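Go through this chain for my students:
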Amino acid sequence: MTPRPGQTAMSALAGLGTATLGEVAAVRIVPGDLRALDPAQECVAGAALTVRCTPGDNLALHLSLAQARPGDILVVGYGGDLTTGPFGEIMATAARAAGITGLVIDGCVRDSAQIVESRFPVFCRGTAIPGTTKSCRGEIGTACTIGEVEIRTGDLVIADRDAIVILDPGTVGDALAKGERRAVREAEVMDRLRQGETTCQIFGFA
């Protein structure tokens, strides 16, 4: 198994953001209808802990909170259900206390204002206030699929206001090197634009 990247690498991935990584690395892009709950959400990066929940039941989420490691991002397959909110303020508080980096869920959440105020990163399909039962243990650590994208425990999740992308942990070094080179080039271009050049001049467009 590929070693889990350290916090320095995770922070560097978050610093690059999804748009840069999407240009330079072989990322898998989660469907765009999952969005940041907080419109001002900064980029976050962490290792996926996958959770399969039965729609309408959130016991598996409670169990995953107890099993997650600091730096994990919970990636929850919830079947795209929009009728219930299996994650709310109490779970967000528990997740932050456990050092969990964020939540990506193929479904809705509740207590959105409180979650945003707590600054716990959540990426979801929307909000729904009906509650859930707690009787199905679901599956933790089993690969889940959101849209057409399969996500495995240990995959790297980078998420911001633009997108959610999944990166194979074995490609981190290459992705960082290429991403950092691209970031330097883009900074140089923007500096030249501020000095009065046009994009046509810089890129040689006719």
About this structure: The first strand starts at residue 28 and ends at 29.
